[in-house]
Amino acid sequence: MVQETTNDDDFTALTELPVSGRILAIDPGTKRVGVAVCDEGQMISRAVGIIERQSWKKLLLAVKSHLVEFDAAALVVGLPYNSDGSESEMSAEARTMAAKFRLSLDIPVLFQDERGTSYEARGRMWASGGSQNDRVDAEAAAIILADFLDRLESARSKAM
After folding, report:
1. How far is CA 18 from the centre of its chain?
2. In the chain, what is the straight-line distance between the N-terminal and C-terminal CA atoms, in Å?
3. Backbone angles phi, psi at 148, to 5 degrees
4. 40-67 burial, b if ≥16 CB within 10 A, otherwise e?
5. Which residues, other chains included, contact 87 with Cβ-Cβ below 8 Å and sequence gap of 6+?
6. Is 129 left (phi over 0), alpha (psi -120 to 50) or beta?
7. In contact, 46 and 35? CB cutoff 8 Å
8. Residue 58's pLDDT is what?
9. Taking a C-beta distance cutoff of 8 angstroms, is the pair 116, 101 a contact?
10. Residue 61 above 70 pLDDT?
11. How many Å apart are CA 158 and CA 155, to the nearest integer?
12. What pLDDT sits at residue 10?
């Protein structure tokens, strides 16, 4: 399920992203931040883990550590809209977080609509026989990244 999300003008356009290199995605939450990464060919996403939210500085250091570990070329931040498409309180939090990342990192920072990803992640985990609640956020980040990769491929196809 790919849902379009328009980035603010000051965020990097999809077509400006490198055509290869890993991309890191996060699913921002109030207690935990899920983390996922894709392969260098930008085809497949996978859950990496979670970051416990404590302070902005610790979150930034943890995200930077993942970016270095995976040599990521971009960061995708899940943007949580309400089911009707309106902005939520967490939308504002995600936008603030992305703006701070943009100021603190030397890579592109983009958004991806994350409506329904936590429900889908729980469904996937239930279907596979798992009940690991601590992995739901990471699985949601992998879904966010997979949706982003689909959107990226579509944008690149249209640009050709």
Report:
1. 17
2. 23
3. -65, -45
4. eebeebebbbbbeeeeeeebeebbeebb
5. 81
6. left
7. no
8. 97
9. no
10. yes
11. 5
12. 35
Q: What is the pTM of this model?
A: 0.84
Pairing assessment for the beta strands 22-27 and 45-52 based on DSSP bridges = unpaired
Tokens of 7: 């980035």
Return the SS3 of 13.
coil
Q: How confident is the model at residue 45 (pLDDT cuts 50, 70, 90)?
A: very high
pLDDT in tens, 74-121: 999 999 888 888 888 889 999 999 999 999 999 999 999 887 666 565
Per DSSP bridges, beta strands 45-52 and 32-38 are antiparallel
Distances in Å between the Cα of 22 and the Cα atoms of 6, 68, 155 are 22, 11, 18
- Between 76 and 135, the more confident residue is 76
Give the contacts of 143 (CB within 8 A, at least 6 positions apart).
45, 114, 117, 120, 121
- The per-residue pLDDT for 3 is 38
Beta partners for 35? 26, 49
pLDDT for 137: 85
Rounded Cα–Cα distance for residues 134 and 74 (Å): 25
